[in-house]
């Protein structure tokens, strides 16, 4: 069984391309996941899994493939959410963000997968799923394997460094930075790297959109005055795409890692486009430098 959540699209969700920003999709997944638990298990099982003051599900990893943009609208976008794997101490959920046309066709905007684990916040430790929780989740169980993006080797280069300051508003009720904010952090760190690569040149009206993003959560990030470090590097350059990998670190301690596949995009045709040769040469220079 799949749960369907109707998610409102807010004006503030839009980016400069007049599409819902890629970071906001993660917020939509979170809303759909919580709605599923509270709708179908409206008791202690949902209370603990959806989030209580003492316990809740924390995200271990996100994997999102962006297929079609979500434009401004007055009607909600639909999100199907279901379970693809239940293990002793984790659950994997899958999502499809979509619209249905008048003829009954489905337009899929994104497909995603999230791995979560139950967590006891007072003791700062994960725990195993209880049998009643497994029972509540099992009604949504379907098989849906998700391909995994392989990552390159971390390269901490000065050109790819970004100083990350955590805002007080980034922190959730559990005292940790909310999982959605990590997507914002990686976006903030990636933009200056791409600006340095393009060297401030006009790229003939060709923009960049996110095709796929994968984020792993290794250790929690907390609010503090001292900044964290984000390191980013170009790991692959295709004919119409570029892959950037990043890590958030506290000194030598890895907190989170991400891999983002970006596609060059013509806003007039709304299709992928080949970027200027000079930009591709610069990207390949960075890829070779960091290999």
UniProtKB/TrEMBL annotation:
It comes from the Bacteria. It holds the Pfam family 4HBT_2. This is Thioesterase family protein. It comes from Nocardioides malaquae.
